[in-house]
Amino acid sequence: MTKAESKATATIHPLPKRDYAGIVGSVPSYRVELHSHCHGDPVDTYLGHTIFEHIDRAKEVGLDAIAVTWHRKICSDPEAFAYAKSRGILLIPGMEADMDERKHLVVLNVAEGDLPGAPTWEEVRALRARKPEVLMLAPHPFYPHPSCLGNLLNDHVDCIDAVEWCMVHVGWLPAHVNPNLRAARWAQQHGKPMVACSDAHALSAIGKNASTVEADALTPEALFAGIRAGRVSFHRRSLELVPLIYQTSRAMSSQPKHIGRWVKARLAPRKIGA
After folding, report:
1. By residue range, what is the domain housing residue 202?
2. In total, how many domains does the chain have?
């Protein structure tokens, strides 16, 4: 680690204790990546790498489990799951659902027909009651992007199992505006664990922001039990300026219509009174 990286890491505070506690004991630990994208995503149609290349890359960087979370569509290709198993990778079915005004919610361990691509919060609650083995992750919740849940989280605390520590992290931002630190404070206030995810949209990003989970077995249920219990850790690194600009521009340019709707909504005159 360089002096710059050490300094950046040292200035990141505060965080829930469960986040930086080292994993100890005799229970196995697994490296997981629970939020990523590849070719086949109906929204990010520019993505060129296949799910099989995605799995190969996960194996190459030492991941034990991954979730491919296409937007509004559950990734459930039987061939991909069989291939992942042959490579020693647990592939968890998932989706990045669109909630109110296209706010993102990562839903994990779901099957086709469990949830529509743009569900209501009541449909999410019904799924949790019907299928408790699912896990709901709030991705990049406080970033300045129209897809982020933001303060909407406060209305749906019961629907959130974990909060994402986003790869697009800037350690020098003041704590009161730093999106990841805001997420960490919210997670701590509401007793939710944090999970680092890369939200990979390229092969090179896979594994760059993974988490280590202490679990009894390499199954979705065991991994999620470990996460809910706070037995999860990860390294926090600040992006250098060039990668930061690149990642931010890709995120903003990938959904121009979405951005346009958000800007239009913000500029529209507000109605006063009932």
Report:
1. 34-260
2. 1
